[in-house]
Amino acid sequence: MLFRIWIDGIAPGSAHGTDIDPEELGSVTSKRLYQLVRQDCRVRDRTFEIEFRATVRWQ
Predict the structure, then answer these.
(1) What is this structure's pTM?
(2) Looking at the DSSP assignment, which residues form a beta bridge with residue 4?
(3) Number of folded domains in the chain?
């Protein structure tokens, strides 16, 4: 299941987590906790957006 994230309306760049590439894309592959963001600068209030390409469901 592919998804895309943005931080303050742009690709995360160096702030991407281990489960996201620098271009903003990630993939749900199993039922687990995903690291989407890892800020390497001073932590401040930001807007985080995530868009799933399809519905993610676990049974």
Answers:
(1) 0.72
(2) 25, 51
(3) 1
Q: Please classify residue 25 by burial: count the beta carbons closer than 10 Å to its beta carbon, then call 0-12 exposed, 13-18 middle and 19+ buried.
A: middle
Query: In whole angstroms, what is the distance from residue 47 CA to residue 41 CA?
Result: 15
Q: Where are the beta strands (DSSP E) in 1-59?
A: 2-7, 25-27, 48-52
The whole domain housing 55 covers 1-59
Q: Which two tokens stand for residue 11?
A: 């690709």
| Contact present, 8 and 59 (Cβ < 8 Å) | no
pLDDT, tens digit, 9 for 90 and up, residues 4-45: 999 999 988 888 889 988 778 898 888 899 999 888 778 889
